């Protein structure tokens, strides 16, 4: 059953599946990777040697530089430029998820299949970046159903990015002394959430991130080296805005956020130690600069998982989740790189495939999502044609 999610019919291709025994890979002629998130590239590493891996140029750079995959297996392909593998026409389309993420269209001659990987639907891309999908009938869509439940009606990324910026900007303008004494920490994955960091860059904020994260960001080529030098630093004393790893500030589970106040306390301490060391250096020099002691932490966790519609003590009308303890404030902001339920609905209503296969199954999620939107008439027509072409004596 699980392989239905990975094997493309009428081909010897697999998508986002690398955890295989050497025996089981001998039937595979090509591997496809939609994006560089661990749950999709798991199994890849320096020892991989089972065949070509087709992916975007960004994903190929990450695989070679960070995951240490032997570059001889990597076949980077550009968006919207069809290529042929085993007589199958393959096209990469922007998945609107993380840098380098693609949806993959396979036109096999026996059927058209779209694997979305992880994606966020964008209505205005229907006639631009995704226009090829208007021109074909799809047999199957392998759909990112991470948030395929009516309860997930979180807002657009633009809205939540504005909200995150407001958290920092409001302090800066209305409570400048509080702002000067605040450590802001923002949780991100290995990649993903770059749009948030970009909004901070656009608003002139310099950020600190650890050396591993810095290397990954460099690899993305999302910002040029001038922006990298100006807005990102690996020295924690350089900025009170820290970009930190996922699940350090808090663990996010559906509808809830479990904050880790001990870690926040540690970071506040560490930030002040680093600033004190830097201050001593500055005092020995000629600069007349003083670094204020940080007195509070504002932690931002951008994830769709914490989205809740109901207003209650832990949840305001922005759909954010809030916890505090002493001088530490943790916000779960409903920012998501995946489609919400309504967007998934609109995506399938537009494509009208004959079949949808969910690639993410979670509790309470429908097994056959959006079945009322499928190309029912096409299915019926195909069935009737097949039935009519049979010998009348053998018709069932
Ligand atoms: Zn992903």
UniProtKB/TrEMBL annotation:
Residues 1-150 form the Metallo-beta-lactamase domain. SUPFAM superfamilies: Metallo-hydrolase/oxidoreductase. InterPro entries: DRMBL, Metallo-B-lactamas, RibonucZ/Hydroxyglut_hydro. One of its GO terms (molecular function) is 5'-3' DNA exonuclease activity. GO terms for biological process: double-strand break repair via nonhomologous end joining; interstrand cross-link repair. GO terms for cellular component: nucleus. The keyword Lipid biosynthesis does not apply. It holds the Pfam family DRMBL. Keywords: DNA damage, DNA repair, Nucleus. It is found in: Nucleus. The keyword Nucleus applies. Its main location: nucleus. It comes from the Eukaryota. Belongs to the DNA repair metallo-beta-lactamase (DRMBL) family. This is Metallo-beta-lactamase domain-containing protein. It comes from Galdieria yellowstonensis.
